[in-house]
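Why show two proteins at once? Because comparison is the fastest way to build intuition. When a single record is shown, students tend to memorize it. When two are placed side by side, the eye starts asking what differs. So, the first record is below.
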Amino acid sequence: MSEWRATRLGDICKIKYGKDHKHLAEGTIPVYGSGGIMRLADTALYCRKSVLIPRKGTLNNLFFVDTPFWTVDTLFYTEIDETRITPEFLYYQLKTLDLAGLNVGTAVPSLTTSILDEIEVMVPPLIEQKRIGCTLRVIDNRVTNNKKINHHLEQMAQAIFKSWFVDFEPWNGEMPNDWREVEFSSFLTPRTEKTNDPTVPLFSVTDTGIYPRSEKFNKKLSKASTKNKVAYSTDIVFGMSREILNWGIMRSPIGGVSSAYNVFAVDSGVNSKYLESFINAHAFYFKDLIRPATREGQGVDKAALMSKSIYLPPNEVLTEYYTIEDALIAQILEKEIESAHLAEIRDTLLPRLMSGELSVADIGGGK
């Protein structure tokens, strides 16, 4: 630790504003914004490793870019003096800081170049920086690779479902005669039960499913927990939407959701996994469920929902299909568990490595 030194961020890199590049035509170059890669453009404006820092909003949501060509949109980006600090080390050092605590005090959390320039960071010799950065990047790269594998597995599952239950390829492109077509009104029952138990976990519904509310929002659903609706496992829940239908199938045993949501019990005779995949595969068919509501956003048209139809294959067909899909899901879960374990290791090592309390040599990662 004696060889570590304190230095201003402005002395080891230049922090610049990323411009609004919406005028660029569509292409193959990633354009980074506050949420990650926003779109693809036809022009690369930068070609060096960099740390991207939000200017407004979620200030701790940093990105490390090491792709050959990229563009940045309304973020800060760093031009680093690599004779003094490595881009990887700078990224992880900034990850240990609370940039949100540097907010200039505007209504929307914001940063300026002058504030960032004055940040003091602790910097070891370059050789140790490279070891630390390499060690942590190996972990993060494995997590990123797992996400790519899981995305591929999810696409495989969706493609197989479409092949069987949309295109009917195993049956020569025609739906078999023994499949039943039923209306939603025959297997959905509205739930209006309210919870009076403050220990019931809270959930929110997005256009990608149902999530624990703590993962998405800080604000409580309501002042009194008794105002929250109850949803049980396999229930279908519709949230508030704007242009995209927000809905999901409840997978936890029980949860509380906003009283503005619509909750429906699904009859046990309908496989909830099949129902979920069916709606996803026929998104356009369900788009007209969104209707104007009295509060911000949109509600779900319950009458239109109940008049919708779904075709149900025999149980033996579903059993055969889910033998395939469940094997893919098992692989996805395995990768998710591994990634969570790796993230835990990284988060444990990060503050200790970046403070000099622990060296890479101490964990067997260097000499």
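Second record. Ask yourself what differs from the first in the token line.
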Amino acid sequence: MTRDSSSIHVIGADVGGTKTLLRLARVTDGRLETLAQEHFDSGAWESLTPMIQAFLKGKPAVSAACIAVACPVESRRVRLTNLELWVDADEIAQACGIPQVRLINDFVAVGYGIETLSAADIETLQAGQEKSGAPRAVLGAGTGLGEALLVWQGDHYEVLASEGGHVDFAPVNEEQIGLLRFLMARHGHVSCERILSGSGLVAVFEYLAQGAAGSGVVEHTDAAAAISQAALAGSDPLAVRALNLFVRIYGAQAGNLALTAWAQGGVYIAGGIAAKILPKLKEASFLESFRNKGRYQEALSAMPLRVVTNPQMGLAGSVAAAVRLAAGH
């Protein structure tokens, strides 16, 4: 590797249980340019270090790297929650010759990614009245339910990690109370993530299927995708009901987080599921559930609410964090 004195090179990484994305970027006079990006099979590696070494072969030397990992980050060496893949910041720094290496949770990276978005990456569900420098909130259902808070720090937003996806599920009507009882019998404690996730959508479908006519939707290898696709196509009435219930609960939890953060800077819906069910999120039930907070309905109606459609928002956020790290921020 060689160093270019006129530019700073950084790496962003989005490390998941299935795949890892690595991006090399160059910063010149404040302008960010992607030089290379590669996709790796996470399960084929025991450690991230040799993966980064392979990616960097023949490329310029890197000043900083920010690595987003799908697990809590409490030290500089972590193992992914759902895969025997180790990520060691100090080992990467030494083996790859990178002076600064930072580990962050994958949803913290999503939070940093918000400031990288363009108008083409966003669908606005409610324009609201955005207040400059006010807190923001981001949540997203996918394999689990990620949440993060963003607070203004002088000239940029800093992201606060959260495990808010594991808060108690709060049903708001008899149908949802029945869902709570159904899931309590399975799990005991019922968090929002038990519903607002891929496996959660399947659980909602199974709850509604009790005593109903049979449906072959859940027999697919990816049952959650099959349910959402059948619901959007209107080809399976039970799938339609399941996705409708999922969307109402999703909207309610987005409203809960909006109140918790007092997110007058905007609420962003990210994660792997949102873009795939965007037509449903644009229907009235999601926004109605978001606003349905009693005396605070008017306040929720004034908060911007947006869906992120860029699937690589977390990778972009990790690159943005690496740029800040290289600049000493």
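One difference worth noting in the second protein: The chain has two domains: 8-110+313-326, 118-309.
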